[in-house]
Design brief:
With 443 residues, this protein is an alpha/beta fold. The protein folds into 3 domains: 137 residues, no CATH class; 75 residues, no CATH class; 209 residues, 3-Layer(aba) Sandwich (Rossmann fold), CATH 3.40.50. 44% of the residues lie in helices and 13% in strands. The protein has 17 helices and 15 strands. The strands form 5 sheets. Strands 3, 8, 9, 10, 11, 14 and 15 form a 7-stranded mixed sheet that branches. A two-stranded antiparallel ribbon has the order 1-2. Helix 17 links the parallel strand 14 and strand 15. Helix 4 packs antiparallel against helix 5. The radius of gyration is 24 Å and the shape is globular.
Length: 443
C-alpha cells in the first residue's frame, strides 16, 4: 500500500483514535479501523462489505473517513460501493445527509457522492443535486457523474438548471461534462434553458434513460463546437488544463507516411519510422517527433484565448521530468511567450517516466483536464540501463491520483507500437478521457 499523504494521515489518526466512532466492540466499524491500523487492504475491503451488510451510523462514518484517508484504490472502491448500499437503508438517510453536508474535506464529499452514484435508488438525486453548486470543482464534477450513473429521469432537471448557471456558452470542462451527461440521459443537446424546460414538460412522463439508444442522428438545438483551439488536430475543449509532453530520446525518430518503411541495418528489419540518429547526439531533425511536438505545442500556446488557464509538464528521465508552473496560469501575452520559450529550449532525455509525469500533472492546482502526449511505454533508468515500469502500476497510480480530483485525462500517441497504443488507450479510458493516434505524418 502507498504511504499516506500528510493531510490524509492526520485524518486517519483522528479516526484510529476512535474520537468519532462510537461503535460496539466487534462491530464492522471497529473491524475497519483495526484493519486500517494494520494497513491490511483485504481486511479493510472485507470490513467495508460487512458494514454494507449491517449498516449503522458508526459504520457510515468509518467508511467516509477511512475511505478518504487510505490511499488505495481497492479500499476506496470498497468504501464507495458500501456507501451506496448503506443509502438503501431508509433509517440512515438522515445521518447520510448529515455526514455529507458536514464533510469539510472535498475528498470526503467526493467519496460520498461517488457512493451515491452506485445506488439504484432515485432518492439519491435530491441529496446529490445541491452539490452541483459546491465551491469545489471536483465535487461538482463528481455530482454530475453520479447523477448520470443513476440513469433516472429525475437527474435531468438539476443538470440543465446547473448548465444554465454555468452558461450554455461556457467552454469550461464542467459545461462539457453537463452537456455530455444530459445528452446521455435524454438524447438532447439544447443550448437554451427555455428549450430544456419545454422539452422536459412534454417528455418527463415517458423518458427512461435506461432504454435510450444513441446514434449519430440524435438531435437537439445544435451540437456544440466550442474549443480553445487544436493541437495535432485534436480539439482542446477545456479552459483550465495541463499539457504533458514526452521528451524521451525515442522522440528523435521520424515517422513515415502510411505504407512506407525504412530498413534499419542494425536491427535488420523494416520499421514504420526512420532513426537517423540512434545515439541521440545530433540536433533533432525538423520532421522528428520531437520537433513536430515542439511546433504543435508552440502554435497552440500562441493561439490560446485570454480566458484559458494552463500549465505544462515535460517528462523523460527523473531529473528531466518537471513542471513549468505549479498552478494553471492565465494565457496572457507574457505567460504565453514564457511557455513558448520553455518548450523551444527543451532537449530530449533518456527513459520515459510516465509515472512521475502523472504525479506532476495531477498536482497542478486549478486544472480540470490533462492532455497527455507520448510515444512510448513507461520506462526508468536502473543500474545504467533502461527498464520497463509495469504498465498496470502506472494505470493504477493514475486512478489513485484521480480518485477525488476527477480530471479528464486525454492521451495522444505518436507511436507505431501496438503495446504503447494499448497502454495509452487504457490510461485514457480509466480516467474519463479519449485516445487519439497522432503518429502518421502527411506526405
Amino acid at each position: 500500500m502507498r504511504a499516506l499523504s500528510t493531510t490524509a494521515g492526520v485524518a486517519l489518526l483522528v479516526v484510529l483514535a476512535g474520537s468519532s466512532l462510537a461503535a460496539a466492540k466487534g462491530s464492522p466499524a471497529k473491524a475497519l479501523v483495526k484493519a486500517a491500523k494494520k494497513r491490511d487492504t483485504s481486511g479493510m475491503v472485507a470490513a467495508a462489505e460487512a458494514i454494507a451488510d449491517k449498516p449503522d451510523k458508526a459504520g457510515l462514518k468509518a467508511l467516509i473517513q477511512i475511505g478518504t484517508a487510505i490511499e488505495n484504490m481497492d479500499v476506496y472502491t470498497a468504501c464507495q460501493n458500501a456507501i451506496g448500499r448503506v443509502f438503501s437503508d431508509a433509517s440512515l438517510r438522515g445521518e447520510f445527509a448529515k455526514q455529507l453536508k458536514g464533510a469539510k474535506r472535498p475528498a470526503s464529499r467526493v467519496l460520498c457522492i461517488d457512493g451515491l452514484g452506485t445506488t439504484d435508488n432515485k432518492d439519491a438525486v435530491s441529496l446529490i443535486a445541491p452539490f452541483l453548486a459546491d465551491k469545489n470543482k471536483s465535487v461538482r464534477i463528481s455530482s454530475i457523474q453520479a447523477l448520470l450513473k443513476l440513469q433516472v429521469k429525475e437527474s435531468v432537471p438539476p443538470l440543465f438548471e446547473r448548465l444554465s448557471t454555468v452558461g450554455f456558452e461556457s467552454k469550461d470542462a464542467e459545461a462539457e461534462e453537463l452537456f455530455g451527461a444530459l445528452f446521455k440521459l435524454s438524447k438532447q443537446s439544447f443550448e437554451v434553458l427555455a428549450d430544456w424546460k419545454n422539452w422536459w414538460e412534454t417528455s418527463k412522463g415517458t423518458l427512461d434513460p435506461k432504454k435510450l439508444r444513441h446514434s449519430g442522428s440524435d438531435g437537439g438545438t445544435r451540437q456544440r463546437n466550442k474549443n480553445e483551439g487544436k493541437i495535432f488536430e485534436s480539439v482542446v475543449r477545456s479552459q483550465a488544463f495541463v499539457l504533458v509532453l514526452d521528451i524521451s530520446s525515442s522522440m528523435r525518430v521520424i515517422d513515415l507516411p502510411m505504407g512506407e518503411t525504412w530498413y534499419d541495418k542494425k536491427k535488420k528489419k523494416d520499421l514504420k519510422y526512420k532513426d537517423p540518429d540512434p545515439k541521440g547526439t545530433k540536433s533533432p531533425h525538423k520532421n522528428s517527433r520531437f520537433r513536430r511536438a515542439q511546433d504543435a505545442f508552440c502554435k497552440f500556446i500562441e493561439g490560446m484565448s485570454g480566458r484559458a488557464r494552463f500549465a505544462i509538464v515535460v517528462f523523460g528521465d527523473k531529473k528531466d521530468t518537471k513542471l513549468w508552473k505549479k498552478d494553471v496560469v492565465p494565457a496572457t501575452k507574457s505567460n504565453k511567450k514564457a511557455a513558448v520559450d520553455f518548450v523551444r529550449k527543451l532537449k530530449w532525455s533518456p527513459a520515459t517516466r510516465t509515472d512521475l509525469a502523472l504525479e506532476r500533472a495531477f498536482s497542478v492546482k486549478g486544472a480540470d483536464t490533462i492532455y497527455f502526449f507520448s510515444d512510448g511505454i513507461p520506462e526508468k533508468i536502473k543500474g545504467g540501463k533502461t527498464v520497463d515500469i509495469p504498465q498496470d502500476e502506472v494505470i493504477e497510480k493514475a486512478r489513485l491520483l484521480n480518485r477525488t480530483r476527477k480530471l479528464r485525462l486525454n492521451c495522444y500517441g505518436m507511436t507505431s507500437s501496438n503495446k504503447t497504443r494499448s497502454f495509452l488507450e487504457k490510461l485514457a479510458k480509466e480516467n474519463g478521457g479519449e485516445y487519439k493516434d497522432i503518429r502518421v505524418r502527411k506526405k
